[in-house]
Structures are given as structure tokens and as C-alpha cells.
Amino acid sequence: MLIEELLSQELSKGLFALYKLDVPPVQLVFQKTKKEFEGDLTLVVFPFVKASRKAPEETALEIGTYLAGHLTEVSTFNAVKGFLNIVVSTDYWLTYFKGVEKQKDYAIRPVNETGDKVMVEYSSPNTNKPLHLGHIRNNLLGFSIAEILKAGGKQVVKATLVNDRGIHICKSMLAWKKWGAGETPDNTSDTACRKGDHLVGKYYVLFDKEFKVQSSKLLEQGMSKEDAEKKAPIILEVQEMLRKWEEGDPEVRTLWTLMNGWVYKGFESTYRTLGVDFDKTYYESETYLLGKKIIEQGLRKYVFEKKADHSVRIDLTADGLDEKVLLRPDGTSVYMTQDLGTAVQRFSESPDLNRLIYVVGSEQDYHFKVLFLILKKLGYKWAEDCFHLSYGMVELPEGRMKSREGTVVDADDLIKEMIDTAREMTLELGKTEFSDPAEAEELYRKIGLGALKYFMLKVDPKKKMLFNPKESIDLQGNTGPFIQYAYTRIRSILRKSELADGYLSWTADFIPEQKEKELIKLIYSFPAVIQEAGNSFNPGTIANFVYELAREYNHFYQDCPILKQESVSRRNFRLSLSAKTAEVISFSMKLLGIEVPERM
RNA sequence: GCACCCGUAGCUCAACUGGAUAGAGUGCAGGCCUCCGAAGCCUGAGGUUGUGGGUUCGACUCCCGCCGGGUGCACCA
User: Fold this and answer.
1) Gap between the Cα atoms of A198 and A200, Å rounded
2) What are the residues facing A73 on neighbouring strands?
3) What is the pLDDT of residue A113?
4) Were both Cys, which of A225, A276, A369, A563 would link to A143 (CB 3.0–4.6 Å)?
């Protein structure tokens, strides 16, 4: 049994015995003892001093005495002010370690086929331009959260909703039709455009340029800015194209299929290097009409209102929000309509779904607030199972990325730069022992991506983060490569030992040192860390944990001889502890989507 | 203007959800490779947690007011 549970139960009894206090064990929490005090777990006794009618320190001692008297797992304790520091017996830690050392998946909960099922929607790209830095954060977050939830025992469906239609998609199509001259990813002389998403992105930019030329010309002719932007010939043309698309015009549809195909191929390649994947891909072209039926139902229930201009709206002012349009006067649907539709679709498709997580930037906080509220008003009881995992923007030192100013950090470029940096760093450090160039490249990829992913995931998703392209991402200190390095050092030791061949036996004929105990405690806490990361939808929790583990191992490595340890039992214990640490590092990193190399 | 979010070492981030003397990394100053891998380890300086109040045994954390920054306020997605 977990030591916290043992303590809580006994404490619950103790509080009653001592002070006639009736507190259920779940309400009694112990926290980790701060480094500067002696002890493993700490109880804050302030809440009990009213009942004990004694000074905090005295109360702490009294409780400590009770716990030590009733639990052999408590070896000693001390009280500082209102804090009761409990020292857990080394026997408990060693027994725990013995119990899990050979159990590879000790930290995960097996997925229960009838248990919680959660869908994580992430990535959801537009098919008119390549992925950038912001998408990278989204992708890494979505993937990692999904993996963490899986490890926490949930059934997980990774989903993405591709924004494959609409006026913005038509823009690049029209530009290509006008000026493309048959350029394709295969025949292009522009090397960057061999990747289809970049090719399509180029035409999206061309459209925008022409649009600006035309609208400023109209502006000079004395037209208002608003009108100029509405009347530019190219805008009228693209609107016509969208109309044709919706009618199913074969020529437009063919072009659409062709160009989207290029984009998908490009995305696939980026996804592959990023290591993210999806169980289910939805296309907006197939879902954009969903939702109208729901609007009708809502009208019948008087949740929505049909206005004089024939638009359908919902008044949310009573909830502190605004009036929201759900159907235009001409009966066409809007973004919200569609999102209502897809949500309903997903829950009816899989009735066992009990969580739907949208990984979407914080710019859309309001949208999701409204969406969830409408679903609730429509009477869907699963509305409260919807969750917007809102993450902060990735900012540059100058502020937000702006395509107009050309400050958008392209995903593919960034990945390439990170791999280049890893290569340079490796060569600079003189780590050139890799004869096989393919193996070396594989290593640079692992390091470069490891640095990038760790950098983006260690930050709390809710917070915006800063990325400085000029100072490339660090490879030292609190970074991915730091953790990868700790891992490779362990692997190196294990290769030199006999552990690779199997289990080495040890008996606890020694008293573990503090550094050994710290490692066991971290290994012990890992399952709880996974749960917490899942509950708070925060991969940063895993990142912080694995960093601490690597750091703690480095301390241990620094002053505890392992292979040179003369006592065989202790040597084997240290090897086993090292092996377990490596395993936990590797698994933690996997939850972050980061690979660990065998050597670096 | 209204709504929401955010201000923590020079810089980038933590702080177990209200607990002890607010921790790491980086940068800076110094030290450690004849010893399991120095992408590592150790020491030092660096803070009135934007600011003023309030709540209480206790506040980076909760409440109110200011100051500064961001995002949203489409019949776009």
C-alpha cells in the first residue's frame, strides 16, 4: 500500500483517538518534506490545533508519537513549528523498490476497455499554408496529453479536424490557377516547394499580394477602405470560386482535390518528423453542413430565436455573453453551427465517449465558452465533459508572429535548424565516435527534436511562451538533451555490467545513502505524477519530473561508485537502481514524444 | 469602450492548488576530468513574487483597487 494511504488512514484514527476529530482519510494529505528538513513526508498540523488546544509544535509531536506508535513504516519524526516531518523507514523504500524493479510497466494503469474514453482533438490545420511554430506547440501538446491519458488508463482517440475548405483555401487555388503555370511539387524548380504545403502556401501569399495591389488602387480612386476590400476584382473572383465549390463544380473540385493532395503529403512528412499521429481524421468539407438539424431542434425548444431578417440567434446576455448568430439570413451555417454539429456527431458516434478535449489556442476562449454553454442549453448532459485545452501563444521577442512582416517561424525550417544545431554541437564536443553516418544523422535528429519538444512542453500550456529564433534552443541545463545525456550515461554503465543479461540479485544488507533513497522516492512518485499530469492536462508536470529525476541521478552518479562498488550486493542494487531510472526516464520522455538515444 | 488572461532573480521557466527560509536553468565570478561518458558535478552573488489594501494561525496562490502587457469583441474559420 502507498505510504500516503497508510498514513492518512492511521491519522484519521489518531485524530479521533486524540482529539475526537472525525476526518475522513481522503481529506488528510501529506506533502513532500522540504529538502532542508529531515523527513520524507510532512503533515501541516495547524488545522488541528483548535481541537488539540495545544501549541502547534506540541500537537505535531503528539500526532507524530501516535503515528510512529501505530505504523512500523514510520521510523522517526520531528516537529518544526506546525509541521510534522515523518521519516519513512528505509525498509519501506527498499521493499517498494524490490517490488517494482522488474516490473516494467509499474507506473501505468492498464487501459480499461469499459472505462473512461476520451477524444483529444488537436492539430486541426488549414490546408492553405505550411505549419508554423504555433502549430508545433499544438501538435506536441495534443500528442503528449493523449499519451499521458493513455498511460493513466484511459481509452484515447486522437482526432484532427482538417480545415480543407472555405474562402481561404480557394485563395491559393485561384492564385495557382492564374499564375501557377502548371507548377507542381514534382516539377518545381523551387526546392522549398517540393514539399506540397509550401507550394500551396506560396500561392496563398501571391493571392494576398495581388489583393493588396488591387484594393489600394481602389482606395486611391477614392473608395472607402471597407469597400475597396470588398470590391477588389480578385476577391469577387475567389468568392465566385467558393460558390462553385459548394455547388460541386467539377473543375473547381478537381483543382481542390489536387492541391489539397499536395498539402496532405507535405503535412504527412512534417507529422512524421514530429512523431505525431491521429486515430481519426475529420474533414471540414464533410462536416461543415452538420449542425443545421441541431439549430432546428433548438428552435423548437425555444433555445434559439428566428429574427425578422431570418437569421437564427441565441441571446446569451443573461449569462454575461453576447448574442450569437447561428444561421445567416440565407440559411448558411457559421463556424459555431459546425462546431455544434461535430460535437453532437462525436458523442452520438461513440456513446461511450466521456471526455472531449479540444486543443486550441487561447484566442478562442470565448468561442468555446459559448459553444459549451449552447450545448448545455440544448440539454446535452455531456456538455460538461467538453473541455477546451487552451494554450497560450508562442511569441517572438518582437511579439506575435506576423505573416505580413515575414516573422512567421516555419515548422519545417525550425526542425531542420534544430537538427543542424545538434550536429554542430556534437561535432564541437568532439563526440565523433560514430562511424556510421546514418546512425549519426539519426542521433542528431533525436537530439534536435528532443531539445525542441522539451522546450515547448516544459512550459505550462496555459501560459504563453517566448521563443527567440536568434538564440537557438539550449542543449544544456534544463533541456531535452540534458535528460537524454543522463540516460546515455546510464546505458553506458549497464552495457559494461552484466545486467544486460538479466537480473542481478541483491539483498538489503546495507543502509541506503540519501542519494539512493531520493532516487527510489522519485521512482515511487512517478505513477502519481502521470495521474496528476493527466488530471491537469499538463505535460509540463512530466517534464519537471523527468528533469528532477535526471538531475538526481547525476548527483548519485557523481558520488556513488557503481561498477567500482566493492560490495556485490550494493553494486547490484545500484545497477538495478540505475536501470530502473533509465527506464523511467525513457518512458517519461516517451510521454512527451521524445526519443532517447543509446549513446550521444 | 466591454469581456477574459497574464505580470515571480538580468533572461527563460518552477513552486504539489492556502503552508516552512519562493526553487531550477541560463548568464556572470570561481572550482572539479591519471577515477563508471565534463552535453556533467560543486561553490558564490542575484527576489519587498508589478503595486496598494483586505481575508487568516499562514498569501506567489483567494477578494477589491490601481499600473503595465496580451487576447477576444464577424452573418471569417
Assistant:
1) 5
2) none
3) 86
4) A276
User: Does A3-88 carry CATH code 3.30.1360.70?
Assistant: yes
Cβ of residue A38 lies below 7 Å from strand B: no
Half-sphere exposure of A186 (CA within 13 A, CB side): 6
Q: What is the CATH number of domain A420-591?
A: 1.10.730.10
**Rounded CA gap, A87 and A311, in Å?**
68
Residue A504 CA to residue A510 CA, distance in Å, equals 16
- Check residues 62 to 81 of chain A and report those whose beta carbon is under 7 Å from nucleic acid strand B: 80-81
What's residue A466's pLDDT?
93
pLDDT (0 to 100) of residue A347? 96
Tell me, what DSSP letter sits at residue A364?
A: G
3-state secondary structure of A379: coil
- A370-389 residues near strand B (Cβ < 7 Å): none
Written as nine digits, the cell of A332 is 448558411
Q: Which cell numbers in the block locate residue A171?
A: 485563395
Type of residue numbered A229: E
Residues of chain A with pLDDT under 50: none
Residue A589 has which C-alpha cell? 520522455
DSSP reduced 3-state for A40: coil
Contact A584, A526 (CB under 8 A): yes
- Going by C-alpha positions, the residue among A108, A60, A52, A111 that lies closest to residue A83 is A60
* CA-CA-CA-CA dihedral for A84, A89, A95, A101, to nearest 10: 60
Q: At what angle do helices A167-179 and A250-274 cross, to 10 degrees?
A: 110
* DSSP conformational letter for A115: S
| Protein-proximal nucleotides of chain B (any atom < 7 Å from a CB) | 3-7, 11-17, 19-21, 24-27, 35-42, 57-58, 70-77
Q: Which of A345, A265, A356, A340 is nearest to A298 (CA)?
A: A340
In whole angstroms, B10 C1' to A38 CA is: 34
- The sign of the CA dihedral A567, A570, A573, A579 is negative
Looking across all nucleic acid strands, the nucleotide with the smallest C1' to CA distance from residue A320 is B3
Q: Who among residues 391-450 of A has its Cβ near strand B, under 7 Å? A: 392-393, 399-400, 422, 425-426, 429, 431, 443, 447
Chain-centre distance of CA A238, in angstroms? 37
Residue A324 has a pLDDT of 94
3-state helix, strand, coil in chain A (%, to 5): 55, 10, 30
Domain boundaries, chain A: 3-88, 420-591
Is the Cβ–Cβ distance between A275 and A143 less than 8 Å?
yes
ipTM of the complex: 0.96
- How far is Cα A325 from Cα A355, in angstroms, rounded to an integer? 27
Helices vs strands, H then E, count in chain A = 20, 14
Which of A 222-251 have CB under 7 A of nucleic chain B? none
- How many angstroms separate the CA atoms of A118 and A407, rounded? 36
